[in-house]
Amino acid sequence: MYRDHTCGELRISDVGKKVTLAGWVQRSRKLGGMTFIDLRDRYGITQLVVEADAPKALVDAANELGREFVIQAVGEVVERSNKNAKMPTGDVEIKLQSINVLNASLTPPFTIEENTDGGEDLRAKFRYLDLRRDPLQKALQLRHNICQEVRKYLSDNNFLEIETPFLINSTPEGARDFVVPSRMNPGTFYALPQSPQTLKQSLMVAGMDRYFQIVKCFRDEDLRADRQPEFTQIDCEMSFVEQEDVLNMFEGMMRHLFKEILNVDVANPLPRMTWSDAMDKYGSDKPDIRFGMLIHEITPLAQGHGFGVFDNVPYVGAIAVGGAADWSRKQTDELTDWVKRPQVGAKGLVYIKMGEDGSIKSSVDKFFSPGDLQKIADATSAVKGDLILMLSGEKRQTQVQLGQLRIELGNRCGLRKTDVFAPLWLTDFPLFEWNDEENKWDAMHHPFTAPKPEHLQYYYSDKPEDILKVCANAYDFVLNGNELGGGSIRIHDPKTQERMFQIIGIGPEEAQRKFGFLINSFKYGAPPHGGLAFGLDRICSLFGGSDSIRDYIAFPKNNQGKDVMLGAPSIIDQKQLDELCLELRKQEQEGE
Amino acid sequence: MYRDHTCGELRISDVGKKVTLAGWVQRSRKLGGMTFIDLRDRYGITQLVVEADAPKALVDAANELGREFVIQAVGEVVERSNKNAKMPTGDVEIKLQSINVLNASLTPPFTIEENTDGGEDLRAKFRYLDLRRDPLQKALQLRHNICQEVRKYLSDNNFLEIETPFLINSTPEGARDFVVPSRMNPGTFYALPQSPQTLKQSLMVAGMDRYFQIVKCFRDEDLRADRQPEFTQIDCEMSFVEQEDVLNMFEGMMRHLFKEILNVDVANPLPRMTWSDAMDKYGSDKPDIRFGMLIHEITPLAQGHGFGVFDNVPYVGAIAVGGAADWSRKQTDELTDWVKRPQVGAKGLVYIKMGEDGSIKSSVDKFFSPGDLQKIADATSAVKGDLILMLSGEKRQTQVQLGQLRIELGNRCGLRKTDVFAPLWLTDFPLFEWNDEENKWDAMHHPFTAPKPEHLQYYYSDKPEDILKVCANAYDFVLNGNELGGGSIRIHDPKTQERMFQIIGIGPEEAQRKFGFLINSFKYGAPPHGGLAFGLDRICSLFGGSDSIRDYIAFPKNNQGKDVMLGAPSIIDQKQLDELCLELRKQEQEGE
User: Fold this and answer.
1) Which chain A residues are Cβ-neighbours of B514 within 8 angstroms?
2) Comparing C-alpha atoms, which of A219, A229, A218 is closest to residue A166?
3) Helix then strand then coil, % of chain A, to nearest 5
4) Which of A525, A569, A582 sits opposite B105 (nearest CB)?
5) pLDDT at B267 over 80
6) Complex ipTM, two decimals?
7) Does domain B12-103 have CATH number 3.40.50.880?
8) Is B189 an 8 Å CB contact of chain A?
9) Chain A interface test: which of B101, B180, B564 (most A C-beta within 10 Å)
10) Domain B291-412 is of which CATH architecture?
């Protein structure tokens, strides 16, 4: 070993010991003939000192150290006269006897500090330097801790961690697969799993009873800011369970994580909300319940006053913003612009200001009397000093717009604190949704999701309005406005499965081609089963109090799906293409 | 929950309880009006009984159950009159009150028993049924346990589990990569990692200090019986360490596994053997030290007697087989045929039989007097009753042939017991090997492997005989004739790295192209570091006492790289090829 202690462990009780440390020079400064060096490793920072009267060779060596040099330092632990209470090692320093430069360093292209001066692209290219920064070191340690605690909880509950293969064939998730050409079987391709869904169900058919895996999944989608082409799931499945059992088991897992990782006690049991309630009250299937500002339907109160924008639509909804009646015209105009952005798509915003003095003003005073407005205010539980915002249109669409507005207002009002955690379960999702483009029913999740037993009458009905009523035995785990995980009880009997395929228009042949082995396996004694998957990257970022999942991934890809450090993807040799029996198609120029 | 107990947990102390079990019908039999059903789940088997005087509906239901039906059974735990000491639940049975068929089953295509009647292909296609068999259930549980214990040991030793990406670019391992065409960057490809070698070294440069990962790796090689295109490594790396530190840490890990998983105490410290000794004495770089039968060089004793086969070669070696002097001519002829197979490639086999009566007979009596033969016998430590076998030729080649013969003899003599564990470290590998085809030096491991510090004089020498003398700071973990893992101390300083590339003929440009980001990262303060990787699949199979790694992989591929259950690889849509800008090349017919 190049060290006998780390840079994070020496304390006042170690004074007098001769120690050897190794690490990186965080910084070095001269002060009245003495040289102070902050030596850093994963475990912390320890101050080294070279006294003014030290041998000249040592003083020279200390003075020649640059930032990020790797050194081995031998010296005696002494008490600091000038203690630093902010550092765990701040009571001591090492009076150096020798310095051994293990490796020099060029000047790094950005500062390796808590907050760096490096731009995103530069830091991505030098990821191995960016990762030396304390926030990223802590992020990967947090991820490690979460993974170990997940495994502990699930192992203790008789789950087996079972690896499923990466070289498989297409999965029924619907997104685009990454494919891998097979050299041994020319003209054919493996697909990388979008999730191990069918494989974990096979493991239940195989009697493995309880399965989990912390596993990479792959989706070849155009990337948004917080999406990665490869991402990590905590993937789980259980046999002989009903929905209640799955919810209890994984509520327990998340409670374990909140307690062990963050020392936070979350509600027990966790709140549950139906999909329909979430849409009505939060305009979202992943409601942020850290704050109120609920959506209220005010259609009857809003209509019949001659205001066409409200009168000619099926739905009018409102939210009350506490204490915002004094927002300026500029601020409400800004909000109007915000909801009109294409990402939200509302046509306009109507407001009522409930003055502290009892006055009521609105942008529709022409149509509504103060009494009419007061009724609307009452419906939203608004009081003096509040601002009421209203949108109208088709019901779900308007609710979603109000939901987006609500989140934006939550941000503007500082109500979305990263150290407050409000998890809940969302249940009772519709099993089907109508696909306007293809004029057919789609399974809202995947076609193995079971209907709620009490909705079987609708499931076997031929009326579209009944099909719409069928709720799934599906559930999402939602935290602070993010879907952290979701799953369902699966269909395990052939009759229910057949009906599912019938409704979504998948014939027996297509079913065989797409899901053949799984459907066949169900003929040989499939147990009732269900499960779910959590997004590990997102769990880490929320637990870490950050919006960016990239900080919690050692080597993330950028928005073009590139790893700029590795230079991947890249061209490959003609020889390799030949072996794979592939040819690159010349790209056509745009406009040709 | 469909059950309140598993099929493995009821004991005599539970008698009188009303319980609900769920599982698969292993078998059912009638006996004097009573029906006995063995109900199976992952946890065990419990006997259910339907009494002759039970309600007719229940008797009928019991009689209609087929093999592998999934049922829920309610009844009372009663003491068995006819106890089965072989089963943990053998003291009790469940007197049934009701049976609920959760799912029927077609008759499975092979028996779901300890030993099945199904052929390999059939079992592969119905892997979800094969996995219900007890040996495979136990195999995956063993794997789970090993993984959890590995993580526990490494976490306790401050290793962080860090995920590295799967969509990377080519790694310097030398085998063929699986590639993944990029849709967003047409004409370019990702490669699936053959190992996270360069990434884990980057993590050391990033100051992560201690890293591990249980991770899938990919090699597109023509498959041998025990090779899989995707396989799992326990991948580890440490900073600020020397070879001794790495050996101690991972010897500790393996000792922990032997103790926790098998309750076996292995030697402490583990034996170590240099590569050169292993080749001389065992003819193998993965010696099986469970038995003796060492190789002895007898060149001086064998030459000069007029026997051309010995006289005209640089090396003659011998092994003594204890108590085998009475092997028949047929047996020795068989051994001669065995060593002449192309897989071994020896020209012939010379033997000496040391009769129990003191007689000495050999296949070369024409050339050697009994006294000459006795001298050879003495050199091999053979005694009365032993058989001595001799091969001759080029030194290393002949040693390898003798090594193969030794393993074969170990098998024939029953000396290779699967419940005996003899691990050891192999050290002091040559750093370079001469590549006859390309007339150049190759790095025996990878070009980041550090030379032993005491061999630096040879490392910087220009004489080929010096280059050959350079040993690597590399090590293999060997168990019972299998390499379970291996690694090295890495080069971390630019000067040593430059010399490495110089010796193996990689110019600066090629080095940049192949290993650019890693070499660049070394300029910014790389710490001394080293590590290793273990093959998890092989560890599992050896711990489980099996030759087959496939039993320890949930969904393995066959020798053609196919998953016959999934039907992967398969053809993909033209649309997908178009999106990837790829065309399939028509395959030329052989002979055209």
Assistant:
1) none
2) A218
3) 30, 25, 45
4) A525
5) yes
6) 0.95
7) no
8) yes
9) B180
10) 2-Layer Sandwich (3.30)
